[in-house]
UniProtKB/TrEMBL annotation:
Signal peptide coordinates: none
Protein name (record): Helix-turn-helix domain-containing protein
Residue intervals of the Helix-turn-helix domain: 66-109
Protein's organism: Paenibacillus rhizosphaerae
InterPro entries, per the entry: HTH_17 (IPR041657), SinI_DNA-bd (IPR010093)
């Protein structure tokens, strides 16, 4: 019996347990049954949470998500999906709310082919971070409006 079915049964039994026509002993038996079912639901819930946590650990340890691969290679998320479609990278698919999700095994990127690209992207990002201008006050920058353009063209 699934957790949802158990919850539904608990609701029905709670409704029945309030029936004043039932003998007190039957109502007590129903209440005991409800307690047992609620205990089973809690155990099922803890198992579900535990398995989700284990899955999360496995995913973070052995897999990348699409966004991580995009950042690693300095490309767009759409490009990663294109690579997946073309079979350039291997993925494990699973159905999730909102559509298919992809987990990308980390192991495949440990080859020299990918390592060179990853290192190149890292070096480029580091170099850009060093030369990126810092603008404290944009004193030399002025807003341009359509009115300014019209004056320059002597149009009004």
């Amino acid at each position: 019996m699934s957790m949802i079915e158990k919850n539904e049964l608990v609701k029905r039994l709670e409704h029945i347990s309030h029936n004043s026509y039932l003998p007190e002993q039957d109502r007590e038996t129903i209440k005991d049954t409800i307690s047992v079912l609620q205990s089973m639901i809690q155990k099922d819930f803890r198992k579900t949470v535990s398995s989700v946590e284990k899955l999360r650990e496995t995913i973070s340890g052995d897999f990348y998500i699409v966004e991580e691969v995009a950042e690693m290679f300095g490309i767009s998320v759409q490009s990663v999906y294109k690579w997946i479609k073309l079979g350039k990278i291997h993925v494990e698919q699973f159905a999730a709310p909102g559509g298919t999700k992809y987990l990308i095994p980390k192991e495949q990127f440990k080859t020299p082919k990918y390592q060179k690209q990853i290192e190149s992207v890292k070096r480029t990002k580091e170099a850009l971070a060093r030369v990126k201008p810092v603008v404290d006050e944009p004193s030399d920058l002025y807003p341009v409006t359509a009115e300014d353009d019209m004056e320059e063209l002597d149009v009004k």
